[in-house]
Amino acid sequence: MAKFISLFSGCGGIDLGMEQAGHECVAQVEWDKNAAGVLKHRWPNVPLFCDVSKVTADDLPDADFITYGFPCQDLSVAGKREGLDGKRSGLFYEATRLIRELIARGSGLRFALAENVRGALSADDGLALARCIRELLDCGACEVGYVVLDSQYFGVAQRRKRVFIISDFGGESCDEILAITESLPGHPAPSREAGKRTAGDATKGVGEHVAIEGVDWYNNAVTGDINHTLKIGGDVPGVIEDKKSMSFAPSDLKRGFGQKPEIELSGTLKKEHNDQSPHVATYEWHNQDSRIREQQQASTLSCNAGGKEGNLVRENLTVRRLTPIECERLQGFPDNWTSEKMELILEGNEWKATGKVLKQADGPRYKAMGNAVTVNVAEWIGKQIGKVLNETK
Fold it and tell me: Which of 45, 90, 150, 171 is 20 to 30 A away from residue 314, measured at CA?
């Protein structure tokens, strides 16, 4: 079992995935009080800090790796695109500051794992990712690698493409961690046209069959990908398509690694469709004429998944909003993960529990799921990290 520190923890998507992969969370940092209340409810004995800019290495225990799903608002194509110079996404540099401090202290830090939206590939005129990699190499990383993973190929019914950046401070194992082709057994999914196949059963505690629907409001994009199932658990067979993950070492800086990098998706894991399941349909709300129009794409959960401009589902002949529990399932969380939170007070920069458990309103639950890292994806990466650490030991 490895120990890890979690920055920008949200409601614990990375943390839960890493825990399910066999690792132990030893410290968390989260600004949002509602999300922090969920963290303290789920991890009552883990130190939980508020403002990452006020955290120092002295506040944190030793750890084998650190995770940081830093804010995406300035990188997302749906935002103002201020990039890493933006106030929120610029918190990336607070993460690297802590990485430097932990390494300087001799904390035993081996890896750092970052997560962000796919817009990071095009922000700052295409240089945001290059800037991140250069900064991590300057922190002392022996190698930095990145990959784009889509949650729908890891057992959830959601098209959610996210960039993951892994930094190795004690070797050159990024390729091994991102080696998707060696991680899971698989077989080709049947060829099909968008909208001609079916999604999985969504009946786990929510009534009759439900098809997942919507457009990618969060990233302002649509694709022809088809989703799978709302159920959690089980193996995820797959086939590799177009694996092009990339890694960089400090020597790359000597080659002038400041140009726009050639970005491409890594391999993904495609799941078979179940022909006995309900039809996939997606819907888009058009403000101009206040109509809902059927599309044929799976959707990415947004922070307003409960609103009319968020994600919708078709149940029988009715189009309705996703429920908070359905959003949790789409992100790989157990049912009602965010339904309760611990009441918190702030002592200095550390959240402390009062001992009172509160019911969480739906709004913060939708927001938490829209911001969360899919648990299944985090678990897969955690297992890959565990393999490398075990080989090293």
Answer: 150
Quick check: is 121 in a domain? yes
Per-residue pLDDT of the chain in tens (393 residues, 90 and over written 9):
899 999 999 999 999 999 999 999 999 999 999 999 999 999 999 999 999 999 999 999 999 999 998 776 655 555 565 666 666 777 889 999 999 999 999 999 999 999 988 887 877 777 888 888 999 999 999 999 999 999 989 999 888 899 999 999 999 999 999 886 544 443 334 443 443 332 333 323 323 233 333 333 234 333 333 333 333 333 332 322 333 456 666 655 443 433 333 333 332 222 233 333 333 334 444 444 444 444 444 467 766 555 544 567 766 667 778 899 999 999 999 999 999 999 999 999 999 999 999 999 999 999 999 999 999 999 999 999 999 999 987
Domain that holds residue 137: 3-186+238-271+336-392
The count of other CB atoms within 10 Å of the CB of residue 88 is: 14
260: amino acid identity, one letter: K
Question: Hey, which bits of 43-142 come out as E strands?
Answer: 48-49, 65-68, 111-117
Q: State residue 344 phi and psi, 5-degree precision.
A: -125, 150
With beta carbons less than 8 A apart as the criterion, state whether 370 and 301 touch. Answer: yes
Q: Is 37 helix (H, G, I), strand (E, B) or coil?
A: helix
In a domain, 282, yes or no: no
Residue partners of 382: CB distance under 8 A and separation at least 6: 17, 18, 20, 21, 22, 23
- The CATH code of the domain that includes 167 is 3.40.50.150
- Backbone dihedral region for residue 178 (phi beyond 0: left; psi -120 to 50: alpha; all else: beta): alpha
49: Cβ–Cβ under 8 A, 6 or more apart, which residues?
27, 28, 29, 30, 55, 59, 349, 350, 351
Question: Is residue 90 in some structural domain?
Answer: yes
8 A C-beta contact, residue 174 and residue 168: yes
Residue pointed to by tokens 């009172």: 356
Total domains, the chain: 1
Question: Given the structure tokens 């050159």, which residue do they identify?
Answer: 172
Cβ atoms of 311 and 213 within 8 Å: the answer is: yes
Specify whether the CB–CB gap between 351 and 18 falls below 8 A: no
Number of Cβ within a 10 Å radius of residue 262: 8
